[in-house]
Write a structure and sequence with these properties.
The chain has helices spanning 14-53, 59-75, 77-90, 93-112, 117-120, 123-153, 159-167, 169-187, 191-197, 199-203, 205-217, 223-230, 238-264, 271-277, 287-315, 317-339, 344-360, 365-370, 378-392, 397-408, 412-431, 445-448. By secondary structure, the protein is mainly alpha-helical. Helix 1 runs antiparallel to helix 11 (205-217) and helix 3 (77-90) packs antiparallel against helix 19.
Length: 459
C-alpha cells in the first residue's frame, strides 16, 4: 500500500501558530457543547424518556419509541447539512458555527423544562420530537463547519492532528453528558431523578451556550474561504455541483462513517446504558455505576481519537482507517460478552477496548473528508457526507439493537449487525484513494477534482 508523499510542510509564523491553536481550542469547545446537548438526549432516552413520555405504549414499545425519537433527529441532519453547506460555501464557515451552536443549546434547554405525558398528554412526546428535530438540524450543520475551520487553518503536515480536535467533541460531549447524569443520580437518587434530577443537565446547557458563543466569535474565518471570497470564486449552487460531479464519492464517504457511527451509538445513543440497567434484562446493574463506566470509556475514546489524527499524518488517513476497522471488528463480540457478565469492571473493560477501534475510525475523519472535496464545494461535501453517514449508521442503531434482542433473545444478534456495518464501511474505505496532504486552497481545484475513487477516470 503506497503511502502518500504529497504533504507540503511550511514554516508558520508565531502569529499563525497562535491563530491555529486558538481555532483548535474553539472547535473542540464548540463541538463538545454541541455533542453534550445531543448525547444528553440520547442518554435520557435510554434512562427516563420511555417512562416519562411514551409509557402508555407499554414497556417494550415505549423503549423502542424512546430510541426511535433519538433516530428521528438523524433524518433531519441532511436538512441541516444542506443549509449549512450551502450557506457555509457562500457566506463562510464561522457564521454557521455560531448559528448551529445557538440552535442546539436553545433546543436542549427547552427539553429541560418540557412537561411530561402525565402533565399534558400526547403533546408532550410531540413537543419532545420537535425539539429533537431541531437538535438534528443543528448537528447536521455543525460538524462540517467545525472540521473545516480546524483543517483549513492547520499546517499541511499536521491536518490530522488539528482535525482531530473537533472530533474530540464526541468523547468529551459523552463524558460531560454521562458524568452530569451520574452526578444527578447521586444528588437525586431513585424517584427524585425521574421527577426532576434528569432535567438539571439540560438546563445547565444555557451556561455552555454562552461560553461556546464567546469562544467561537473570537476566531478568524477559514483562510481557504477568505481566499475564495476575495477571488469571487464562490459557487452559487454548491449542492447541485456536488451531486452532479461527486455523488459516488459522497456515498462512499458516508458509508465509511456509517460503520463507526452505528458502533459508537451503542454508548452515545444510550443503548448500552439501557441494556445494562434494565431490571428485567440479563444484566441488571445500577444506573450510576453504568454511567460512570461509560464516562471512563469516553476518556479512552478521546485518547485514541487524538492518537488516530496524529498517526494519520504519518501513515496516511486510509492506513489509519484500516487499523481502526480491524480493531473495531475484533472488539464487538468481546464487548457484549463482557457486558453480559454483570460485572461492572468487566463492562468498563469491554467499553474501553471498544473505544480503540472507535477512536481509530474517527480521529482522522476531519482531514480525510476535507481532502476529498474541491475547495468551492467542500463545506457541502463534508457536511452532507457526514449527515448521510449518520442516517445509515447511528440514526436507528439503538432502536435496531433493542428490536434484535427482543426478537432473538440474545445480544449476539447485535454483534452480527455491528460487524456487518463495520465490514461495509471497511470496504468503502478501501475504494477511496488516500489524498493525505493534497493542497486545499482554491488554486488547486483541478487537482482536488481528480477522481478520488479507485477505478474511476476523469469525466
Amino acid at each position: 500500500m503506497a503511502i502518500p508523499t504529497t504533504v507540503r510542510p511550511h514554516q508558520a509564523t508565531p502569529s499563525q501558530r497562535r491563530d491555529t491553536r486558538r481555532v483548535a481550542v474553539a472547535t473542540v469547545v464548540g463541538t463538545t457543547i454541541e455533542w453534550y446537548d445531543f448525547f444528553l438526549y440520547a442518554n435520557a432516552a435510554g434512562l427516563v424518556f420511555a417512562q416519562l413520555y411514551f409509557e402508555p405504549a407499554g414497556p417494550q414499545l415505549a423503549i423502542l419509541l424512546s430510541f426511535g425519537s433519538v433516530g428521528v433527529s438523524f433524518l433531519f441532519r441532511p436538512l441541516g447539512a444542506f443549509l449549512a453547506g450551502h450557506f457555509g460555501d457562500i457566506l463562510g464557515r464561522k457564521a454557521m458555527l455560531v448559528i448551529t451552536l445557538i440552535l442546539m443549546g436553545a433546543s436542549t434547554v427547552l427539553i429541560g423544562v418540557l412537561p411530561t405525558y402525565a402533565q399534558i398528554g400526547v403533546m408532550a412526546p410531540v413537543l419532545l420530537l420537535l425539539l429533537r428535530i431541531l437538535q438534528g438540524i443543528s448537528a447536521g450543520g455543525e460538524w462540517g463547519g467545525a472540521v473545516l475551520m480546524a483543517v483549513e487553518h492547520a499546517p499541511d503536515a499536521k491536518r490530522g492532528r488539528f482535525g482531530a480536535f473537533p472530533q474530540l467533541g464526541v468523547p468529551l460531549g459523552l463524558l460531560l453528558a454521562t458524568g452530569m447524569l451520574a452526578i444527578m443520580t447521586a444528588v437525586a437518587p431513585g424517584e427524585a431523578f425521574i421527577e426532576w434530577g434528569w432535567r438539571v443537565p439540560f438546563l445547565l446547557s444555557i451556561v455552555l451556550i454562552v461560553v461556546g458563543f464567546v469562544v467561537r466569535r473570537s476566531v478568524e474565518e477559514s483562510p481557504v474561504f477568505l481566499e475564495i471570497r476575495d477571488r469571487a470564486q464562490r459557487t452559487k449552487k454548491p449542492v447541485v455541483v456536488l451531486f452532479r460531479k461527486h455523488w459516488r464519492l459522497v456515498l462512499l464517504a458516508a458509508l465509511t462513517f456509517a460503520g463507526m457511527n452505528s458502533a459508537g451509538y451503542m454508548t452515545t445513543g444510550g443503548y448500552i446504558q439501557n441494556y445494562a440497567t434494565n431490571p428485567d434484562g440479563p444484566v441488571g446493574l445500577d444506573r450510576q455505576s453504568v454511567l460512570v463506566a461509560v464516562s471512563i470509556s469516553a476518556v479512552t475514546w478521546l485518547i485514541f481519537t487524538m492518537l488516530a489524527g496524529i498517526v494519520s499524518d504519518r501513515i496516511g488517513r486510509r492506513a489509519t482507517y484500516i487499523v481502526g476497522w480491524i480493531a473495531l471488528i475484533a472488539a464487538i463480540f468481546p464487548l457484549f460478552a463482557l457486558v453480559n457478565t454483570g460485572n461492572i469492571w468487566l463492562l468498563c473493560l469491554g467499553l474501553c477496548l471498544f473505544t480503540v477501534g472507535l477512536g481509530f475510525t474517527y480521529g482522522q475523519q476531519a482531514a480525510f473528508y476535507a481532502e476529498l472535496f474541491p475547495a468551492s464545494i467542500r463545506f457541502s461535501g463534508v457536511s452532507i457526507s457526514y449527515a448521510l453517514g449518520s442516517i445509515l449508521g447511528g440514526a436507528f442503531a439503538p432502536m435496531i439493537a433493542t428490536a434484535l434482542v427482543q426478537a432473538t433473545g440474545t445480544s449476539v444478534s447485535v454483534g452480527v449487525y455491528l460487524t456487518i456495518m463495520a465490514t461495509i464501511a471497511f470496504a468503502a474505505t478501501l475504494a477511496i484513494r488516500d489524498r493525505t496532504g493534497i493542497p486545499l486552497g482554491p488554486d488547486h481545484e483541478e487537482e482536488q477534482s481528480a477522481p478520488a475513487i479507485y477505478g474511476m477516470s476523469r469525466t
